[in-house]
Specification:
The chain has about 160 residues and is an alpha+beta fold. The protein contains 5 helices and 8 strands, in the order H-H-H-E-E-E-H-E-E-H-E-E-E.
């Protein structure tokens, strides 16, 4: 796999979180989880339902950072992404089998337990996987998205 350079139009083509989360079901996500487990990538790879947070200017990209107890995604000038030590943390594959970054993060973008309110108000978007006692795929929901007026807040679920 070769990762292409960031292109704003790839990000803009993503659906919003509510629409996109409805496009896949648990069985489809588990099939991807099985592949991840079969290749022993469960410590390094998770499945994220890539989605558009809001419209960006041509020179912007989404950057996820830790702010207090929340992971927050906000638009940042493309020129500032590299200077912030950010790296692609969400990638998507086009119909032409080309991989593009659609989101960036920093090493401080860590997970934490979430409150019941965050769990019930969020839309699940990030999944991890483990093998059950009988070898079956066990799916964990790690994060969900909760749009807010101040931006698009990503909260940890599970």
């Amino acid at each position: 796999m070769v990762l292409c350079s960031y292109q704003n139009q790839i990000y803009e083509a993503l659906g919003d979180v509510e629409q996109t989360a409805k496009m896949v079901d648990k069985d489809q996500i588990n099939e991807i989880g099985k592949i991840i487990l079969d290749h022993e990538y469960e410590e390094d790879v998770c499945v994220i339902i890539a989605h558009r947070h809001f419209n960006l200017a041509q020179d912007e990209a989404m950057l996820e950072t830790l702010e207090g107890k929340s992971r927050v995604s906000r638009p940042v000038s493309w020129e500032n992404i590299a200077s912030m030590g950010a790296f692609p943390n969400v990638i998507t594959c086009t119909r032409e089998n080309q991989w593009y970054p659609v989101g960036y993060g920093t090493r401080t973008s860590e997970t934490r337990p979430c409150s019941e309110k965050e769990f019930t108000e969020g839309i699940p978007t990030t999944y991890s996987f483990a093998r059950g006692k009988n070898g079956q795929v066990e799916q964990g929901c790690n994060r969900g998205c909760r749009p807010t007026q101040a931006g698009h807040v990503i909260v940890h679920i599970g």
